[in-house]
User: Fold these one by one.
Assistant:
Number 1:
Amino acid sequence: MKYSNKKLSIENIKVQSIAKKFGTPAYCYSYNQLKENINNFKRSFKSFSPLICFAIKSNTNVNLISEIRKLGLGADVVSMGELMKALKAGIKPNKIVFSGVGKTVEEIKYAINKKILLINAESKSEIFEIERIAKINKKSVNVGVRLNPNVDAKTLSQISTGKKENKFGVSEKDFLELVKYINKSKFVNLKCLSVHIGSQILDVKPYENMLKALDKIIKKTNHSFEYIDLGGGMGIDYRNNKKVLNLKKYSLSIKKFLKNNNSKIIFEPGRSIVGNTGILVSKVTYIKEGHKKNFIILDVAMNDLMRPALYNSIHRILPATKSRKISNKTYEFVGPICESTDKFLTIKNFQKLDEKDLIVICDVGAYGISLSSNYNVRPKPIEILIKNSKINVINKRQKLVDLI
Ligand SMILES: *Cc1c(COP(=O)(O)O)cnc(C)c1O
């Protein structure tokens, strides 16, 4: 994404022409950026060639998932719907892992029938349930057990998952008991130890602590795990301050870990694969100058992009056409929804905007469309993929008739 002649464009397609042709709000993804992210990820860890399972929940667009599959990735799913989408996008079952604390009987049966690589169980009860279903169906099912390593991911509390107060995974004590239990079972095979300590992690330290915890517990089990699934959580640079997770350093720590543990590594990245591939194009509906605050009211809202309302997260906002005229006022960029949390960002000294001007919200490829809803009976935005300087509509704008 860059400005040329003051006009913002993705892969040489002007944001302005996208808005003109397809309307706003519109999600736009860059294929080149996607490819670069995936290649960079692979390159960083190539010394032990991990299985990279894209976390479908970060972006559930089947066409995009299909592109991700063509670039060599498998899938991490957390529901039957996501599993169906991964299969529809052509991902082979032997590259799919299933996570989540509350898999239902129906979901477990479906996963067993589809012969996916691993069901990563998160409780004793779930292991008993998988065993019961496998026994009825006379099958032997490959499972992982998710450990809660009790390490602090040092990220937002809402997206931290690896501490003992979180609902995810099992404690060390339960883990050790489950290893013994599963090793005696004829219907479940313990293939994997899995962890996922949280999301938007920018520092290697929490991962290093996690690896230490894994090393310790593996020694105690005396079990040889075919796979170690390290989850995802690699952070990206939302603030444009160049702070990103050092994948090379993480890779070195894993290499060290693998000296004692001869397992295949699985990753489940979501955000780091798609986060910076997407922008959300929006038009200014009104500008409202108040007594205490000034508002830029956009045609995009929290139903289209939930992260700021849900986590107070920051997404940069850029004008579609650059000008030198800077406003000396402070503006809050808000949506039209009847909620005070329906706001995106407060900006001082933004360039002067007029009603009907276009802006883009940056880095919305992950947890953008996948967290969107129809709140206020608002149709979901169109999704567009720019590939080889061509515009591909990969999901149509929802129509009001579909909602009413
Ligand atoms: C959400 C999630 C991921 C992906 O997290 P990112 O921060 O998007 O990389 C991976 N594994 C599990 C189990 C998850 O719940």
Number 2:
Amino acid sequence: MIWYPYEQMKTMKTPYKIVDANGVYLYTEDQKLIDSVSSWWSVIHGYKNPELTAAIKEQADKFAHVMLGGLTHEPVLKLSEKLAEFLPGDLDYCFFSDSGSVAVEVSLKMALQYYMNRGETQRTMVLALEHAYHGDTFKAMEVGDDEDYHFVLNAYGKSPYVVHIPTEIDALEKAFETYHDKLNCFVVEPLLQGAGGMRMYDVSFLKRARELCDQYGVLLIFDEVATGFGRTGNRFVADLVLPDILVLGKALTGGYIGHAVTVANHRVYDGFYDDNPVHALMHGPTFMGNALACSVALKSIELFERDDYMAKIRNIEAITRREMQGFSDSRIKEVRMMGGCVCIEVYDPATLNGYQNFAYQNGVFSRPFLNYLYAMVPYVMEEPELVQVLSVMKKWFRGK
Ligand SMILES: *Cc1c(COP(=O)(O)O)cnc(C)c1O
């Protein structure tokens, strides 16, 4: 028996069984569905992309995996080199892991140990955002703030090592005033908070955060597991405001195989680099730097650059804005858009009951959660499919 994610197994409806997937389409035995979720936002090139599939096959014919403990290989060397070049500023040191949650854990461990290595042992606290989602492992849950995901934390109460603030500059300044000598880092999903409800905020908040982090020597971590590779309409939000540590996952994989990376700048790396073995970063997921994952990630970045994906994303945003123009309903609290993400927030989650089945009948796969009906489509989606995804969303409100 499969135990499915985020589901009450007793009441969950039967999941759609996918028998084929190609481009922006998912196929069940009897329906062809436009995918509006990109398999948790990772399948940016669509399914069964011939070039990505060829890259992974080619590597599989050589070897699928060797560990990075004492060994290394061409795909991981190339990917780390490529990322250093592709990412802004001096984000040059790549620590790979097998999932976004683990990559977030690594970033928090890095920030904490950075200060331990310097003897600043009072810096044990993390500043984070309200409504943050950083993954489902324990420290990631602590810096996250979504009771709907992490109610299990109530078992032992809120961590005294994490402070959550809203995305408001006043609250930010106050938190730094109060806690600056205890903070090792400020971790954020920049501009777009995904699983916490597709919440969008202004870059001025991040610019002020960068200034305060500099002023008080606090490390700034961007969790771009969801936002990285164009989702906000920026290649990376790190192109606008430079963090000290950047976490990437989801789209990094092209949707093929679980992989993630925690990228440190020179300052962070230098905080570990000395003759003392105790100052080493003690972490090492078994499948970090997996050769299949690295090969497919390299090809994914190549396509992203070669086929001008940023233009595709601008086009998706323009079509979305045009289609949602003037759309409103008394049950809707807000319609918000940014880059390749659109979200309809409703007042009452019951408003979305039955939507998934309605979308299915209309040839679209969608997975609304709580009060949020959203689309984060593969970047290769063409106008007719995108218009259909958005029309089905609008039709749900008109028809009821
Ligand atoms: C999905 C997500 C994660 C967790 O990634 P997994 O690969 O599911 O562990 C972490 N942070 C953000 C912002 C995410 O959207």
